[in-house]
Description:
globular, DNA-binding, 11% strand, DNA binding, Rossmann fold, alpha/beta, Resolvase_HTH_dom, DNA-invertase from lambdoid prophage Rac
Amino acid sequence: MATILYARVSTIDQNISHQRTQAEQAGFVLDEVIADEGVSGVTVPLAERPQGKRLFDKLRAGDTLVVRWVDRLGRNYQDVTDTIRQFMGQGVVIRTVINGMTFDGSTKDPVQQAVRDALIAFMAATAQSQAEVTKDAQRAGIAAAREKVGRYRGRKPSYDEDTLETVLDLHRAGGKLLTIAKDLGLSRSTVRHIVGDPQRAREVLARWDKGEE
């Protein structure tokens, strides 16, 4: 039985190493890491990604699939829920690093099944809604920048879109600002800025046109 981490970043200038580090710090002993770099979770289903599609051939009953959060599988509600159900149907256990969620298809108790399925739906819907909010902020920021051609955009942010969402996920999970900053290689003030005003943090990224998640 293998434990496989699937990692994804949406632009080629991002790095998947922090996702592996987070998993190992959470106590996962990984047999393999499969990663897609520079691949959108919004427009490209897992089964169509260069590395993501390998999971469908590699995973076997009894294996554990680890992801930082379900948004690494995708940011499309239908794709994420279908994927998780397919893997559970094959006897694969899906576990998240953030919040320590476990999705296991072996349970026969109807109440446990209902709770599990509701959590899957909620997390998948949250992943899609976050992507839509981010995209709206990008459009607004780009439009504003076009109206003010040549205006100083300020210092380039030290975080990218994936890092921003990681900060918010870790903070929601109860992480302390200093610990989050240390784990992600950010300053404490940057983490405080993101947590204090996520919308503004997204707009800063949008002005730099970081691209689609």
